[in-house]
Amino acid sequence: MDTLNQTRVTEFVFLGLTDNWVLEMLFFMAFSAIYVLTLSGNILIIIATVFTPSLHTPMYFFLSNLSFIDICHSSVTVPKMLEGLLLERKTISFDNCITQLFFLHLFACAEIFLLIIMAYDRYVAICTPLHYPNVMNMRVCVQLVFALWLGGTVHSLGQTFLTIRLPYCGPNIIDSYFCDVPLVIKLACTDTYLTGILIVSNSGTISLACFLAMVTSYTVILVSLRKHSAEGRWKALSTCSAHFMVVALFFGPCIFIYTRPDTSFSIDKVVSVFYTVVTPLLNPFIYTLRNEEVKSAMKQLRQRQVFFHEIIYIMGIGIADIIAATSLMKEQK
After folding, report:
1. 11 conformational bin, left if phi > 0, alpha if psi -120 to 50, beta if neither
2. Which of 242, 134, 137, 258 is nearest to 196 (CA)?
3. Closest by alpha carbon to 65, among 23, 113, 25?
4. Would you place residue 171 in the very low, low, confident or very high pLDDT band (cuts 50, 70, 90)?
5. Is 214 left (phi over 0), alpha (psi -120 to 50) or beta?
6. How far apart are alpha carbons 281 and 287 in whole angstroms?
7. CA 99 to CA 93: how far, in whole Å?
8. Contacts of the segment 216-222: beta carbons below 8 A, 24+ positions apart
9. DSSP alpha helices (H): ranges in the chain?
10. pLDDT tens digits, residue range 239-291?
């Protein structure tokens, strides 16, 4: 029992995305731009929702929460990845690794539950429009958001407990650019078969079950559209198609990674980059480019110059992270 509670490893070493210096510089520039665009794009949606009365509806309330989660989700992994692209030896302390793992699962699970809520919101709005104001009032919306954060916290605590209870007494090389449960438990000095089963039954089952539930929800919505007018069908299809694009882009990688934690493929890093870096950027583009109400709200805000200072502040945070990573590289040299 004492052996299980001892942790000899004090830090982990990331192998990163590549060991080619030229590629690392190209990745650094590309992912830096993506990160700044992710921050500014999602904060734009939040500001547009807050300052535009016409967007004070459940759908946009959930959309602003999605943008907030995307900002947090991206910030858990991208700054550390950018730092690693500039450093020859990419390390993270054991405590920071566990912290990163905890928040990664917290925000990922919160996003999964939020996408479920958004699918339910569209189902009620399209299939039972007369009952929508009563079913999806603001009190219910706030309760649902509270529930998703509670569920995400419980899930993340469970994943973190599964990880820290294992002994780590030797190997400390992580073949990735961030800490995650399937990657870390492989380094444990004990049999992790049972832990792997628990991960599949937790993260894998949540991802797959929620995805199937949303597919079913959108199928019911599509069937019900036959009763609507041509204009109503087009508007509903436009909204639901944007939502489903987000669902597919987020759930695809999650299902691929967490339904087989004991198996590794060479494509795992590419898949991880997609759902930790790219998807948080695509969400604001998918919703704004396909949504006339959001685009109109942003044009009004631009005329009122409401969000200039906020965007400068957010972009400043992203640039500060990049400068800090550059300074670390110089110090190591």
Report:
1. beta
2. 258
3. 113
4. confident
5. alpha
6. 11
7. 10
8. 217/119, 217/120, 217/122, 217/123, 218/119, 218/122, 218/243, 218/244, 220/123, 220/127, 221/122, 221/123, 221/126, 221/127
9. 2-5, 21-51, 58-86, 94-127, 132-135, 138-164, 181-185, 193-199, 205-224, 230-258, 268-273, 279-289, 292-304, 308-332
10. 677 777 777 778 888 888 887 766 777 788 888 888 888 888 887 777 766 66
List C-alpha distances in Å: 118 to 52, 213, 230, 260, 329. Answer: 20, 12, 23, 28, 42
**Under a CB-based contact definition with an 8 Å cutoff, are residues 38 and 71 in contact?**
yes
Place of tokens 């998807």: 279
Torsion of CA 140, 146, 148, 153, to 10 degrees: -170
Is residue 16 packed enough to be buried (19+ CB in 10 Å), middle (13-18) or exposed (0-12)? Answer: buried
Closest to 162 measured CA to CA, from 182, 147, 146, 136? 182
Give the list of residues 6+ apart from residue 230 with CB closer than 8 angstroms, or none: none
Which residues face 91 on adjacent strands?
13
Q: Which residues contact 270 (CB under 8 A, 6 or more apart)?
A: none
Task: Compute the distance between CA of residue 329 and CA of residue 89 in angstroms, rounded to an integer.
Answer: 10
Instruction: Name residue 14's beta-bridge partners.
Output: 90, 174
**Tens digits of per-residue pLDDT, 99-154?**
999 999 999 999 989 988 988 888 888 888 888 888 899 899 999 999 999 999 99
Q: Which contiguous run of DSSP H or E holds residue 14?
A: strand 11-14
**Cα angle value 259/214/39 (rounded, 5°):** 80
User: What are 12's strand-pairing partners?
Assistant: 92
Residue 90's DSSP bridge partners are 14
Q: What is the pTM of this model?
A: 0.83
